[in-house]
Design a protein that fits this description.
Blueprint lengths: L4 H6 L1 H4 L5 H10 L1 E5 L5 H11 L3 E5 L24 H12 L4 E5 L8 H5 L4 E4 L4 H14 L3 E7 L2 E7 L7 H4 L12 H4 L4 H19 L8 E6 L4 E6 L33
Parallel strand pairs: 1-2, 1-4, 2-3, 4-5
Antiparallel strand pairs: 5-6, 6-7, 7-8
């Protein structure tokens, strides 16, 4: 494919990078990324992937925009309150970059539909705000051999890791099962500073871009944590004993997807 003059100007800062170039930008334009969750994490991911020229971006979320979302979910505006988040996100993404094809899924992601949702995508972003969804995304991506970026935020803290099939532990290798109900406070109970979504979500977008380009070191085998109050990042090496994992190990005991009971905005194990 040949770039138009408008594309050459739009992506000029990418094309001059030796790690990207024209070949890398074409990889981005041909790539497909699914974002599950159009909230605090999914918002910056969607904005930066659209701006980068990722050619097809799917975005799945069942919720409508609420006024309390706007403190951190920067893809939506006050005028969008009451409209489906996926439609609000699509509108903003298309304004940023008309090159991008945005596919919306205004639905809950469940064990019944997740494998169909992820099957045509190259990379999956976990932008959800609860443990049941995170375990479901992990298990589905492991079963379907799809790479994905996990992240979670609460208060002034966040974390992320990347799973690539055959190249490191999955989320369940590290956190075997969801915590008991009410064991971890939700964002509604504990709060979250809005900029945390921007910081951690932008890192998720970077992981997706690096994976598509085949450049740099991904967070495979590592958990990156961030404490905003202390302004500290920690990169923690994860255990490599994936053989005993109930989903990605040699003898998996989880052979079907499970819908755990949901609790909003509790996506960080700390």
């Amino acid at each position: 494919m040949a770039f138009t003059n408008e594309q050459l100007e739009r992506y000029s800062r990418h094309i001059i990078l030796k790690e990207v170039g024209a070949k890398g930008q074409k990889k981005l334009l041909n790539a497909k990324v699914l974002i599950i969750g159009a909230g605090g994490l999914g918002s910056p991911v969607a904005l930066y992937l659209a701006a980068a020229g990722v050619g097809t971006i799917g975005i799945a979320d069942a919720d409508d925009v609420d006024l309390s979302n706007l403190q951190r979910q920067v893809i939506h505006t006050t005028k969008d309150v009451g409209t489906p988040k996926v439609e609000s996100a699509k509108k903003t993404m298309e304004k940023i970059n008309p090159d991008v094809k945005v596919i919306t899924y205004h639905t809950f992601v469940t064990s019944e539909n997740i494998l169909d949702l992820i099957k045509d995508y190259d990379f999956v972003i976990d932008g959800t705000d609860n443990f049941p969804a995170k375990f479901l995304i992990n298990d589905a991506c492991v079963m379907a051999k799809k790479p994905f970026s996990h992240a979670g935020i609460i208060r002034f803290q966040g974390q992320l890791m990347t799973y690539v099939p055959g190249k490191g532990p999955c989320y369940r290798c590290v956190f075997r099962n969801p915590p008991p109900k009410d064991a971890v406070p939700t964002c509604k109970q504990a709060g979250v500073i809005g900029a945390m979504g921007g910081i951690i979500g932008s890192l998720q977008a970077m992981e997706a871009i690096k994976y598509i380009l085949g450049q740099g070191d991904l967070l495979t085998g590592y958990l990156l944590t961030y404490d905003a109050l202390k302004m500290e990042f920690r990169k923690v090496k994860l255990p490599s004993n994936t053989d005993n994992c109930p989903i990605c190990g040699k003898h998996p005991t989880i052979t079907k997807l499970i819908d755990y009971e949901q609790a909003e905005c509790d996506g960080v194990h700390l």
